[in-house]
Specification:
Helix content: 25-40%
Order of helices and strands: EHEEHEHHEHEEHEEEHEEHEEHH
CATH superfamily of the largest domain: NAD(P)-binding Rossmann-like Domain
CATH topology of the largest domain: Rossmann fold
Oligomer: single chain
Number of strands: 14
Shape: globular
Radius of gyration: 19 Å
Amino acid sequence: MKNILVTGGAGYIGSHIVKELLDQGYFPITIDNLSQGHRDAVLGGDFIGGDIGDATLLRSIFQKHAIDAVIHMAASSIVSESVANPKKYYQNNVVNGLNLLETMLEFNVKKIVFSSTAAVYGEPKEIPITEEHLCNPTNPYGWSKFMFEQVLKDFDKAYGLKYISLRYFNAAGAHPNGLLKERHSPETHLIPNILKATQEGRPVEIYGTDYPTPDGTCIRDYIHVCDLAKAHILSLKKLIHMSESSYYNLGNGAGVSVKEVIKAVENILRKEIPIKISNRRPGDPAVLIASSQKIEAELNWRSINKGIQTIISLSSNG
């Protein structure tokens, strides 16, 4: 059994990773300040309430547990908020991350899987986006993740700290067990917002219909959260057995527009959903679709829950 520290493990994606770790025989140790996470979403292992910016707390965790590797999920992740409050994003996503790395080196823990984002690419020059695409983020959230990726590269060269950075964009869906699902506050993800608006009988807000896309709304690559969780475990296994740093995109390789997602929900619920058109949100690229060929070839990862209809069905059941 390996002891795996999961930062942000009470959050939406983090809790699914903790569940996958448990299912595969690892022992997860979760640290989460519960600013976005939920204590009841951590279904096993140890839980520590606190922040990775607290160096004393981190040291006590590493002293108590023989940590073998880290899966780093803790971050602020709302694009529009990052534009309005960049200080928060550089503090949480870069400075606090450095604190984590410093503690890892102090206790000779040199393996980390990092939750990155396709937002590091900015406005794509080619679709689908491969890992060789130029990184030029359009918002502080993307920059904070890209900066931390650069920190990881430098720590690898200087200290031998090995990492795998996973770049994904729109996680969606719920766990088949019905216990884990999207519970953000405020909720910023499109699919749960559509479902919630439909339940409450109010229109769904669309932020911009003048993007250079076929229907004028943003296009995103949606990937089921359980598929994401499995990718983190495959990455962890590679680090444990091969100790080789790398970075991978995660996606379905197919883009879906905001209007297409709404239409898919309408088809599933068999009812028309009213919409409200609002201005664009700052920092939103028009199209983000990721190529996952590299992780498929090197780690034998596959997206099982393909298709927006499948993902929405799992979301509404969850």
